[in-house]
Design goal:
The chain has 196 residues and is of the alpha/beta class. The protein contains six helices and five strands, in the order H-H-E-H-H-E-H-H-E-E-E. It has helices spanning 10-16, 33-51, 60-76, 90-94, 120-128, 131-138; strands spanning 57-58, 104-114, 144-155, 158-171, 182-183. A five-stranded mixed sheet has the order 1-3-4-2-5, sandwiched between helices. The protein is globular, with a radius of gyration of 16 Å.
Length: 196
């Protein structure tokens, strides 16, 4: 299954996607995980700066949520915001995200790819071509984010796959839009899966 074209969004997406000279490691699909994560941070920061929104701070709690979510997708062998039928908020609760806050909000982007389609640049390209995923990436409501990738894994019958999770959050917000446990995960992660 391949997906990534959003009609009319091409020019806007191009302006939000960092080039090789801005985030050079973003094009490397076989780089060590730490290099891939730094490249994705660069790509996210660039997209947000082009949209005129504040940069996000990295959250160790949201990094843990991302790792737990990827591991759950792999263990359940399904590409889902709710793997094995578990509630979306399960992993946020596991790390106690929002605990003690009267209000908080979270969101999530997931993606997987194989070969060159697994590079941070290609994963970001797929997210940007999806209106819901792009909204998560550049929303001013988020204050922090977490990332994780598991590379060179077997997933959904394919080998050599990279599975990505990008978590977004805002603990202790007083914004009127934020409802407790606001779930802004796109309805279907299938909109960004890609393999050949």
């Amino acid at each position: 299954v391949a997906a990534s074209a959003a009609s009319g969004a091409g020019g806007r997406v191009t302006g939000l996607l960092a080039t090789r000279n801005i985030c050079p490691a973003g094009y490397l699909h076989n780089a060590p995980v730490a290099v891939q994560l730094r490249a994705m941070v660069c790509l996210i920061t660039f997209a947000r700066s082009q949209e005129g929104v504040q940069p996000l701070r990295r959250s160790t709690k949201l990094d843990r949520v991302a790792g737990l979510k990827v591991d759950a997708d792999l263990a359940c062998d399904e590409f889902s915001h709710t793997p094995c039928g578990r509630a979306f908020m399960t992993w946020f609760a596991d790390v106690r995200y929002g605990l003690g806050s009267g209000r908080y909000a979270v969101g999530e982007n997931l993606a997987w790819g194989r070969g060159e389609d697994a590079s941070p640049h290609q994963i970001m390209r797929m997210w940007l071509h999806s209106a819901e995923h792009r909204r998560n990436l550049v929303s001013p409501r988020w204050h922090e984010f977490g990332l994780e990738v598991r590379s060179h894994v077997a997933f959904l019958g394919s080998r050599g796959v990279a599975v990505w999770a990008n978590e977004f959050g805002n603990e202790g917000t007083s914004d009127l839009w934020a409802a407790r446990k606001l779930d802004t995960a796109p309805r279907s992660p299938a909109g960004v899966q890609r393999h050949r």
